[in-house]
Amino acid sequence: MQRSFTTLILIVIIALLSNSGCGGNNVTLPVTDTNSINSPSGLINPTPTPALSVKPVQGYIYANNITTEDGEIIPNISVLDIPAYQSDESGNEPFITQVSNSLQKDYPGDWAKPEIQELYSQLNKTLSECKPLPQYNAQASVYSVYQDSSHETSIPVNSDGHFENNVLTGAADSTVKLEVDLGEDNYAEVETLPSSGDINSSDATGAVLKSCPEKIFAFPGEIVIFKIQAEPGINLKSAGLKFTLNNPSIGCITQPIYLCIFGSHKFQTGYGCLYVKNGLNTPIDSTITATTNSGLSLKIFTEVIKKTANLSGTVYTGGMPLVKGFVRSLGPKACCKIDENGTYSLPKVFLGHYRKVVCTYWTMENGKKVKHREEKVIDFFSQDMTGFNFGVPPTPTPTFTPSVTPTPRSMDDPFYTRKTFEVIDQFTEWKNVMSINDATQKTVDWLNGAVHEIPIPEGVTGGAVYNDFGPSPVIQVQFNDGMVKFFTTDNDWFGSYPNNDNIIITPDTNLLENQNKTNRISSLDKSSHKATCIQPGDIAIISPFEWQSTAPENITTDDIVNNLTEVGYNVHSKITHASDLTYVRRGDVFTESKWCNYYIFGAKNDDHVFLPGHYTHLVSENPCGLIYIYTHGGGNCLIIGPRVLVGEDLPHLDPNTDPTGTFLNDPEMAPYKLQANDPIENGFGSMYAPLLPYQRKLFPDLPPPNGKEDRIEVLFFGKKFLKHLNSNLNPDSIVYINSCHSAELNDVFPSKIYLGNDDFADVDWEKSIGYYFFHYMLYGAVPPVDVPGIPYGVLYPSPLPMTDPNQPMHVEQAIDALYTYKAIPDPQTYRDTTNTVGVILSKSDCKVTVITREGDSDEVYLPVNVPVTVHKK
User: Phi/psi at 857 (nearest 5 deg)?
Assistant: First the structure.
């Protein structure tokens, strides 16, 4: 969702005014066909008024002028809880004094730093120049933005700037928006927080941090004051509130300051001061992060601004007479009247993100003045922007334009990569300043034409959000020729959630206490069913992402193959290690990306590499009795491997070196090629996913890190496509798909027995469970000492009850033994250390599900050269 822009506000908020007035005489704006208007407001498109409530506000409102490095004079409106520079009648020490005392007492090390001294000097200068609003402008008056300043009573402001009142505000708003009328139709907007109540919660973990302002916009050389509260209110000092400026090159920041008001400290509100250095090339983005010891976290978007451009357009009133109106934004000359032709022009609006543009105007309707307020938020980076209109423009007479059918491209044409990476770059820009989910939604809105200020890449016609691959969403990029591409929005999916950089994985500290909570009908003592062996005895084992799992070090999927081979099985395997691959930089197939490096895998041969064309041969056509695939996936798809170029002459893309491209363009696959907005399960496609930092270290031939994210291309098969490919699957086989949510794929593998995971899972846990499953079927149960997350020597009875030592187990016995050992469910606890992934899980609890076909109760063993004893009750 697109967040509302906040002007530079509480507590030093830049409210930008025009040097000229914003008033005007009564005029009528031109409309093509006024007879078609049934309701006077029918064509007006104001920002909808939210549900309103009355909230108390109080404070001191000040104004002063700021001179930028370019000599522009910017009026500045600010609100403080206490006087800025002089004590008040109640004896409250001024803000400047309390800041000085707090820094010296609470943060003596910071106080001694030259940059903090410079910050304090600038703060002292700024506050000394601030005047109470009535002294700055005797005509000024203050309203809620939801009031009509043309005829409603303003909020009283005393001569010292103090105000106290109950005002209308959005019921869901965390701040109170005030409109300041400075006379001569000059207006500004300022935000403050509702009057803070008492600390009403001792549970810091259940609170949510909020800031005022929600976003910070500052000039080089400026001081900005902001404050943090929690909802519900908590003691932020006891909670260990801390501030971090994530890009310290732009300036410096204080740690939290708690004001003393009427003799007591208000620990429910923490103030901070940001000082921005002079001489910066703008705009520059950063964030201020507020954190507590209990794990609360809040990122405040921060942008340094200075450069300006013109913004202009037309305001349409639907034919109603205009009483007066103005348009304003953020800039030295960013407020103007709407003229008699309905046009406006803001000569100097600051370039940057989240530029809010507000159009306020009054029309005469049925003899009454009606206020309209429309608010738009844009990312403004153009040198000039025209046609930025408000209201609803008249509908033009339609004209026929012949449609142009795009020339079809092959699915592996580098054009799609180039354009998708342009989308990824813009998504990353937004991701750097907002949450993943918000950045995802804004990107999709942009691709679908709802965000106008940034051109959409050539050939791209839309976008969609998918949640099939992990906790964070995936974006689909749609092209005008029907092609679609996908990319992940965070690395928690491709690392096989939750094994990513932001996750700490630890043993479950409550495991011993909870070991009896997992109830499962065990097959360890079952003995009345028929014992059979897999038919035929061939086995297929596929692990296209083996290189990603680096622990436990003494277990690999190769060990499964070796154990099976030693006892005489014919094993068909494709297990890909880092040593089997090289990286090829695809700089020749896409325009240099700002935020990403695009790499593609290379291999001299496909001896150990699983390619999409191998699937049919190894899985569905080969008469295997057991199929084991260890990979990534989701409930509606399976990730079958990365894109790999094969051959000596790399990185050229052609049918001889790019078997993935050959597969993608196979005419027989065309019915399953995903189209725009198709469900993932309907077909197949490719996706650009990140290479995690720990994985990068596995490939020494990669160039050194350059600050960009490394991405590779992977191929996925949806459920319906898998069902098509599995049409010849051996119905007497055992299929074990070891990936996230693979239990949900059971209906597309028509096998005798199917095994899959019921949740997101850690790749190392998956690998170790797969290893012990095969070990138990071959050799019998042993303590699963290498399963991550369970303490060795405590939970492992050996031998297990109801089993014979060294006795091979059937399928269900092997899984039940892992339940008995408490290796299933996944015993690890996952904790997100940065609060940035899309979903936070305290515990995965992933389980392996065994699904047998209806009416089939056979106990299926691996045929080995040892006697199999079947116990009878």
Answer: -120, 20
User: What integer is the mean pLDDT of 738-760?
Assistant: 89
Say if CB 342 and CB 296 are below 8 A apart: no
Helices (H), 31-181: 95-106, 108-111, 114-129, 133-136
pLDDT at residue 526 is higher than 90: no
Q: Which amino acid is at 584?
A: V
pTM of the model: 0.56
User: Beta strand pairing status for 335-337 and 343-350?
Assistant: unpaired
Residue whose tokens read 């003229």: 339
Q: What pLDDT, on a 0 to 100 scale, did the predictor assign at position 831?
A: 52
Amino acid letter for position 174: S
Lowest mean pLDDT among 117-126, 340-349, 519-528, 618-627: 519-528
The partner residues of 487 in beta bridges, in order of sequence, read 475, 688
Q: Is the pLDDT reported for residue 3 higher than 70?
A: no
Cα 545-550-551 angle, rounded to 5 deg? 125
Provide the H-helix boundaries in 448-556: 491-494, 511-514
Check: CB of residue 234 under 8 Å from CB of residue 241: no
- Digit-coded pLDDT (tens) for 249-286: 899 999 999 999 888 888 999 999 999 998 887 778 88
**Burial class (CB within 10 angstroms; exposed 0-12, middle 13-18, buried 19+) of 383:** exposed
Token pair for 756: 């899959």
- Measured over the CA atoms of residue 127, residue 131, residue 132 and residue 136, the dihedral's sign is negative
Does residue 666 register a pLDDT over 50? yes
Residues 167-210 have pLDDT tens digits of 888 777 778 888 888 777 677 888 888 876 556 555 555 688 88
**Span 285-319, pLDDT tens digits:** 888 999 998 888 888 989 898 888 999 999 998 88
**Secondary structure class of 339 (helix, strand, coil):** coil
What the block records as the tokens of 470 is 């992990």
* Angle of CA points 661, 662, 668, to nearest 5°: 120
Q: Pick from 175, 158, 136: which is nearest to 55 by CA? A: 175
pLDDT at 355: 87
pLDDT band (50, 70, 90) for residue 36 = very low
Region of 483 on the Ramachandran plot (φ > 0 left; ψ -120 to 50 alpha; else beta): beta
| Backbone φ, ψ for residue 195 (5° rounding) | -55, 130
Q: Which residue matches tokens 């822009």? A: 5
Strand boundaries in 351-479, DSSP class E: 352-365, 368-380, 384-385, 460-466, 474-479
* Helix-helix angle 763-779:811-820, to 10 degrees: 120
Give the span between the Cα atoms of 45 and 48, in whole angstroms: 8
CA distance 863 to 570: 12
- Maximum CA extent, the chain: 102
CB atoms within 10 A of CB 238: 14
Q: Which of 327-341, 634-648, 666-680, 831-845 has the highest mean pLDDT?
A: 327-341
Tell me the C-alpha distance between 517 and 182, whole Å.
67
- Residue 72, pLDDT > 60, answer yes
Instruction: Round to whole Å and give the CA distance between 326 and 321.
Output: 15
Q: Tell me how many degrees the CA angle 582-583-584 measures, rounded to the nearest 5.
A: 120
Q: What single-letter amino acid sits at 614?
A: H
Q: Hey, what long-range contacts does 79-83 have (CB within 8 A, 24 or more apart)?
A: 79/9, 79/10, 79/11, 79/13, 79/178, 79/190, 79/192, 80/11, 80/225, 81/259, 81/261, 81/266, 81/269, 82/259, 82/261, 83/160, 83/161
Helix/strand/coil (H/E/C) assignment for every residue in 815-842 = HHHHHHCCCCCCCEEEEECCCCCCCCCC
Confidence (pLDDT) at 652: 45
> SS3 of 370, please?
strand
Are the C-beta atoms of 336 and 18 separated by less than 8 Å?
yes
What percent of the chain has pLDDT above 90? 22
Distance CA 472, CA 483 (A): 23
Give bridge partners of residue 54 from the DSSP assignment: 168
DSSP secondary structure letter of residue 70:
T
